[in-house]
Design goal:
Largest sheet: 4 strands, mixed
Strand order of the largest sheet: 1-2-4-3
Distance between the termini: 40 Å
Radius of gyration: 19 Å
Shape: globular
Helix content: 40-55%
Structural class: alpha+beta
Number of strands: 10
Length: about 220
């Protein structure tokens, strides 16, 4: 249900609407939602995930795992994203070494994708298959089945998070099976984890990327 509003709606009104609707989308006609307001919603509706789309002034509220469950497993989920980030950069570096390209030069990566590869795909290392698509590159380990998808449009920053692909990475990584079971194959649960990590400073936004998130690599040292 999409509701157009002129100003942020009161929490009690939202509570009443959620009694009758499983999913709510609020579209703010003018201005923007404050960060404090978004945080207050997530704190208030702990059995839902509250996602803000800043570039279109919208907020989505849908059911999810409880905030308490995410907080109890916060370290484990952070380590999932940490492993994704590390693996993504490692594979892109391996790709660059294999085909002798400079990742600092986006033209070289584009030329590899469009001119040097048959069907924009190939193999690197002993077990990894890769395939370029749109703005990303997917990697699949032919031995373990591990899968991850990497955005290639942010220079040498390959850790941009996507709800669907992050969940798929967790599901196909043997060491993360326990964390994956908490998600119960529900994208809303993965999004809840991302939002809680973001609110707690474990994730940060990429500049000029419409809310795209990466891991905060300095969080552990704070």
């Amino acid at each position: 249900m999409i509701i157009e509003i002129n100003s942020p709606i009161e929490i009690e009104k939202i509570r009443s609407l959620l009694d009758k609707n499983e999913k709510l989308i609020f579209a703010l006609k003018e201005g923007e939602f404050s960060r404090d307001y978004v945080i207050s919603l997530q704190n208030e509706f702990s059995n839902h995930v509250v996602t803000e789309f800043e570039w279109i002034n919208r907020i989505l509220i849908v059911p999810s795992i409880p905030t308490k469950m995410v907080m109890e497993n916060l370290t484990g989920f952070y380590e999932c994203i940490e492993l994704f980030d590390r693996t993504a950069h490692s594979l892109m570096n391996l790709l660059a070494e294999t085909f002798d390209i400079d990742l600092n030069n986006s033209n070289e990566l584009h030329h590899l994708k469009t001119h040097r590869l048959a069907k924009q795909s190939g193999e690197i290392g002993n077990a990894w298959k890769f395939r370029f698509h749109g703005m990303g590159c997917s990697f699949t380990n032919s031995v373990t089945g591990q899968f991850l998808d990497v955005q290639t449009i942010n220079g040498k920053e390959f850790g941009q998070l996507d709800t669907y692909y992050l969940m798929k990475f967790i599901q196909t990584t043997d060491s993360l099976k326990e964390m994956g079971s908490i998600l119960n194959d529900e994208s809303n649960n993965m999004q809840k984890v991302i939002e809680v990590l973001r609110l707690n400073g474990y994730l940060i936004e990429l500049p000029n990327r419409n809310g795209a998130l990466i891991i905060n690599r300095y969080k552990r040292s704070n």
